[in-house]
Amino acid sequence: MAQTDTTIPAFPQATSLGASPVTSPGSASRFAAALAHSLLAAALATAFAGTAWAQGSGYPIKPVTLVVPTAAGGTTDLSARMLAQTLGPVLGQSVVVDNKGGGNGSIAASAVKRAEPDGYTLLMQYSGYHVISPLLTRQKQWEPTDFQPIANVLSAPQIIVVRDGLPVKTLAELIAYAKDHPGKLNYASSGNGSLQHVTGAMLEQQGGMKMVHVPYKGTGPALQDLLGGQVDLTFGTAPPFMPHIQAGKLRVLAVTGKERLASLPNVPTTADAGYPKVDATSWFALFAPANVPKSVIDKLVADVRTVVQNPAFQQKAQEQGATADYQGPQPLAERVKSDLANWAQVVKASKIEAD
């Protein structure tokens, strides 16, 4: 697949904001324009102008590639492009985004696993792929232990979104509606075994009701059918839904987590609504192949921390319904371990299997 150079000062025009594959060409253009015209890169380039590392013979001496396990347009892609645009000036080298979607993340993960462990090929990973896909796949092409954590970049809770015509305005009303209309309420996901699918199963468990699962090949087509009224609701991170929420075409019932989103301050959390165990936060983190030298990892950890903790980066993330959530290697490793254990219980109880 063609690679896109995303270093400052040249903004990529093919970028967009979202939780999974892009919703439509029109949406992609709007998202791309929003990012391309933001002041993030300019602000960070100025802030980091004096921090570029002297290259000499040390790492990096050539461009670094961030492999993304989704098509352009998702929050994983957004995370990679925001990081690439701002990390380049700090590293003193170009940072390239390479989208390798498909296979529930296996295509990208396998490519990075096989890459030379020199720090020039990294994985911008989505938590749903890193801690759920391994639980569903019997013939594994990769394991989380094939990678070493560098840093978490963004975190974003799932939101529960319904079509405008559905006669519910709260999470309690949704659950009551599902109980009153058994077998009628359906929800879309980005695929069988996806985080949206597992979040739907979690809501069913906690709400004591049943819904019909309708899997799609990505959030994009799922969102299109939600807007068209073919499905009743879906789950996902906020960025791709925000324009449609603001236009009144979709309604948000709850944020699946313990804290409200700054971009949706009036939307209650699932804990507020009485369902604290419906907690599904996605994270988007940078990983390297297992045998990359420690000196390279240390360099990347320090520079990613500089970028993610910058106020301009944090503000841009907040505007998109996400949080710039830096976590270093050890906390990220512990998060992976904890999430694997927690999601394993949901997957087992719901008897979810990948396609």
Give an overview of the whole structure.
This protein is of the alpha/beta class. The chain has helices at 25-36, 40-48, 75-91, 106-114, 127-131, 133-136, 171-180, 195-207, 219-227, 242-246, 294-308, 311-319, 329-350; strands at residues 4-5, 64-68, 95-99, 121-126, 147-163, 186-189, 212-215, 233-237, 250-256, 281-289, 323-327. 49% of the residues are buried.
Summarize the entry for a quick read.
The protein is of the alpha/beta class and 355 residues long. The protein has helices spanning 25-36, 40-48, 75-91, 106-114, 127-131, 133-136, 171-180, 195-207, 219-227, 242-246, 294-308, 311-319, 329-350, and strands at residues 4-5, 64-68, 95-99, 121-126, 147-163, 186-189, 212-215, 233-237, 250-256, 281-289, 323-327. Strands 1, 2, 3, 4, 5, 6, 7, 8, 9, 10 and 11 form an eleven-stranded mixed beta sheet that branches.
Determine the strand fraction and express it as a percent band. 15-25%
The tally of beta strands, per DSSP, is 11
- What is the overall pLDDT average? 84
Amount of helix: 25-40%
Sequence stretches where pLDDT stays below 50 over 5 or more residues = 1-39, 47-57
Assign the structural class, choosing from mainly alpha, mainly beta, alpha/beta, alpha+beta, or little secondary structure: alpha/beta
Sequence of secondary-structure elements: EHHEHEHEHHEHEHEHEHEEHHEH
